[in-house]
């Protein structure tokens, strides 16, 4: 029996009490509020052993025991599978206030049992239950990575709406993973054994979209040399995912609305009426409500699609998920060892605005995996637009610069030798009194650096290219000689 206008809590109640009258009273009260209740005395409960299924239990009510059993031992048995929220139906003198918090005891439920009081406790337990549900199902959604609050909320909503055979509208910026969510909804629905058929409404020319969705008969139009089923037929018994629904032309919106309302359609050029046994999930990065005001989207179609809205968070709003996403995307690389990211590189990436969201991150990981397979990624290895902090200068950095300078000088010498094997060009005669070779070479090096800067318009990267040096090497030499751009 359920009270008027009182929804079920979404979890079950376990009552353990040797006071039969109170046990029955509590059972009646909570059953009236819509809960499925399991009520036992202590002897019967202990006989259950580990056979009792706690998976749906969201609250345990503990009354008095006529057995010489310590409450701590009972609670340890209850929490074997996981810690359960608990309420005491009577006082247990052995407990202190610290014990309440340690054992997950919310408080003491004393008679008379008031409606508002019971709802408060159920609301609190419901929040605990809802918080756990996405965590428990994370392993079942391997493509849905993250532990941030926005993602946990989305995961919870997926578990709530997936079993319901209703339309879902997924909104969010491009690259946020709307198709991943659509697939999760399908895989956790009653239609999971049926096909999942995606259609990008923005990628199909408007004149072909009707045929793509509903199919066509032979001779329906020029080029229709044979009959062809549409996406509605291919998705029969499963899910049809209409991506970028905001790009659908208005005339096509009218036809789609009719199919959603009547659950029937005809192929282009055909007269036979076909049943549309599909669940529709739509997605868009556009603001459909603004489009309705501008006359670009039908309001009646919007309400047919938007039965249950899901808004995907942008990556910049869940940056705490970045390390998990990077690890998951690196593990998906086709070859080699996953990339490792230095903390400074992660800090730099967390300062990026991510306009392309997870898709932009996936592209970056793929690019880095090609250039640095199995490597450790620091700030210097990131593309320039992702470098939002300076690469810290360390003794290792100085050593790296030294090796780079040595390599550059060796390459330069090799190129000179290959161009002038006899060493005739630019031959210098040694003065009779001799010279300081180091000073002489440094003066020539300074002269060439200044000439390269002038030729490169005082742009260091251009000058480095002219001198066949790395930019960092040239910067070090300019610092050494005190050369500044004019």
TrEMBL record:
Keywords: ATP-binding, DNA-binding, Nucleotide-binding, Transcription, Transcription regulation
Species of origin: Marinobacterium marinum
Biological processes, Gene Ontology terms: regulation of DNA-templated transcription
Protein name as it appears in the record: Sigma-54-dependent Fis family transcriptional regulator
Domain Sigma-54 factor interaction: 144-370
PANTHER family linked to this entry: PTS-DEPENDENT DIHYDROXYACETONE KINASE OPERON REGULATORY PROTEIN-RELATED, TRANSCRIPTIONAL REGULATORY PROTEIN
Record-level Gene Ontology MF annotations: ATP binding; sequence-specific DNA binding
A Pfam family per the record: Sigma54_activat
CDD domains, per database record: AAA
């Amino acid at each position: 029996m359920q009270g008027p206008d009182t929804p079920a809590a979404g979890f079950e109640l376990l009552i353990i009490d040797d006071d039969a009258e109170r046990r029955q009273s509590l059972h009646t009260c909570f059953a009236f509020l819509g809960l499925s209740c399991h009520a036992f005395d202590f002897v019967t409960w202990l006989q259950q052993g580990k056979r009792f299924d706690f998976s749906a239990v969201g609250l345990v009510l503990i009354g008095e025991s006529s057995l010489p059993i310590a409450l701590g031992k009972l609670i340890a048995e209850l929490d074997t599978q996981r810690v359960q929220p608990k309420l005491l139906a009577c006082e247990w003198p052995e407990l202190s206030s610290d014990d309440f918090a340690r054992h997950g005891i919310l408080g003491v439920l004393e008679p008379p049992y008031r409606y508002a009081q019971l709802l408060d406790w159920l609301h609190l337990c419901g929040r605990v239950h809802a918080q756990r549900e996405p965590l428990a199902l994370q392993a079942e959604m391997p493509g849905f990575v993250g532990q941030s609050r926005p993602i946990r909320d989305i995961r919870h909503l997926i578990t709530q709406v997936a079993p319901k055979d209703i339309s879902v509208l997924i909104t969010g910026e491009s690259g946020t993973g709307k198709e991943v969510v659509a697939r999760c909804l399908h895989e956790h629905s009653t239609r999971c054994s049926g096909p999942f058929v995606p259609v990008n409404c923005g990628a199909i020319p408007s004149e072909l979209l009707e045929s793509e969705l509903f199919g066509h008969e032979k001779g329906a139009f020029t080029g229709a040399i044979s009959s062809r089923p549409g996406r509605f037929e291919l998705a029969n018994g499963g899910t049809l995912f209409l991506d970028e629904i905001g790009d659908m032309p208005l005339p096509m919106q009218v036809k789609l609305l009719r199919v959603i309302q009547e659950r029937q359609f005809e192929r282009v050029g055909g007269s036979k009426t076909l049943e549309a046994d599909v669940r529709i999930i739509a997605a868009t990065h556009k603001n459909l409500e603004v489009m309705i005001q501008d006359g670009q989207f039908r309001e009646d179609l919007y309400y047919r699609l938007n039965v249950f809205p899901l808004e995907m968070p942008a990556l910049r709003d869940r940056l705490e998920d970045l390390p998990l996403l990077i690890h998951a995307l690196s593990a998906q690389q086709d070859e080699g060892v996953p990339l490792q990211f230095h903390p400074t590189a992660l800090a730099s990436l967390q300062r990026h605005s991510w306009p392309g969201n997870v898709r932009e991150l996936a592209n970056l990981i793929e690019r880095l995996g090609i250039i640095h397979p199995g490597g450790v990624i620091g700030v210097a290895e990131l593309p320039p637009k992702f470098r939002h902090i300076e690469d810290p200068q360390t003794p290792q950095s100085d050593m790296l610069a030294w090796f780079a300078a040595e390599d550059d000088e060796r390459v330069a010498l090799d190129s000179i030798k290959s161009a002038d094997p006899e060493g005739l060009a630019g031959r210098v005669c040694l003065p009779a009194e001799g010279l300081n070779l180091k000073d002489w070479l440094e003066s020539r090096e300074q002269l060439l650096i200044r000439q390269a800067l002038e030729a490169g318009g005082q742009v260091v990267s251009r000058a480095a290219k002219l001198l066949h040096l790395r930019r960092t090497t040239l910067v070090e030499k300019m610092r050494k000689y005190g050369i500044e751009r004019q």
